[in-house]
Amino acid sequence: SAYLDYNATAPVRPEAASAVLDTLRVPGNASSPHAAGQRASALVQLGRSQLAELLRCSPNELVITSGATEANNLALRVAAPDGGQLVVSATEHPAVLEAARQIATDQGCDLTIIGVDRDGQLRLDELHAALNSPLPTVVSIMAANNETGVLNDIQEMAELTRAAGGIFHTDATQLVGRLPLDLSTVTIDMLSLSAHKFGGPQGVGALFLRRGLPVAHRPLVRGGGQERGWRAGTLNVAGIAGMGAAAAAAQAQLDIERERTAQLRDRLEALVLAALPDTQINGRSVPRLPGVSSMTFPGAPADAVLSGLPEVAASDGSACSSGALAPSHVLLAMGRTAEEAESTVRFSLGHATTKAEIDFAAEQVVSVVRRVKEAMWVS
Ligand code: PMP
């Protein structure tokens, strides 16, 4: 079998699994003053500093959340100026798009959605136009797209936003731990991430909030004042320990994994293209994440392809919206037809992917796509 759905969730790294288990074995609320509580607190500090090291920020610039969905919601809520402008791209994850729609309504903001070209690259002229607005502005542009892997030049966009006096947030969920990122040199104001995309456990993530950023204290969750009041609730000690261990392992392996993953992804594409030359690879001519391949198989609906591939874990569009009947908003924004979008499968690789998995997947994909095309042609 082959697990090629890292963008939905990556396998937990052994270092992270051990850290979670070790932590679960010792009691302690990280807010308690007794020794047991302080042991838990030390584990939280370690996890937080491992994550901070990966991002090159300060540990106290991180607000631990339940994942990127919550981090995105919190970022937009605290940064969106009442009566201002919220700018997002058309290919954002629903955790930004849906949050932005709600917050724009709640806080009376104008919502500006920036389009992309056929390769999925942001239309910078539209960003420039939005930044020309006299309204106080928050821009949220993802670092790497979850469906295509297409990268945005977030450094450039952060600088443009800052020059125009706005606040820049990026949903970097698919980038963190896979490509280098240095918040000590890049002028990003806020950044969201989720541990399970880089080999940590599910249900934990973080929002980076740059020190001194002029945001409103509008937490989504109020209560005991944890996380300096930004996110109340007993800390998820095991989750944070696992996230930290995964961050440390990802950082140590980043260059090797990046290179290996890109080679395996290129091998998958070469094998599939050799046998199915009409396959379209979305975003292939622009900078992409090393481990993602979004393939359109003309004449082969993705649901039929995937149901013929039980031993190859891949996805149509994003896992979060699979099951929904609507074609991918990302591919539609890239100018694909609904039929093309519905004939697209996303393969995503990462730290534990092997050559054997790639060869197995390529062979399976080729034979199933051929069979589906024939069946469609006949019927
Ligand atoms: N943003 C992006 C780009 C994602 O890919 C995902 C996960 N599919 C999320 C946000 C949400 O992450 P989580 O479900 O862990 O909150």
Automatic annotation (TrEMBL):
Belongs to the class-V pyridoxal-phosphate-dependent aminotransferase family. NifS/IscS subfamily. InterPro entries: Aminotrans_V_dom, Aminotrans_V_PyrdxlP_BS, Cysteine_dSase, PyrdxlP-dep_Trfase, PyrdxlP-dep_Trfase_major, PyrdxlP-dep_Trfase_small. Its EC number is 2.8.1.7. It is an enzyme of class 2 (transferase). Its cofactor is pyridoxal 5'-phosphate. It catalyses: (sulfur carrier)-H + L-cysteine = (sulfur carrier)-SH + L-alanine. Transmembrane segments: none annotated. PROSITE patterns: AA_TRANSFER_CLASS_5 (PS00595). One of its GO terms (molecular function) is metal ion binding. It comes from the Bacteria. This is cysteine desulfurase. The keyword Mitochondrion does not apply. Residues 3-359 form the Aminotransferase class V domain. Keywords: Iron, Iron-sulfur, Metal-binding, Pyridoxal phosphate, Transferase. It holds the Pfam family Aminotran_5.
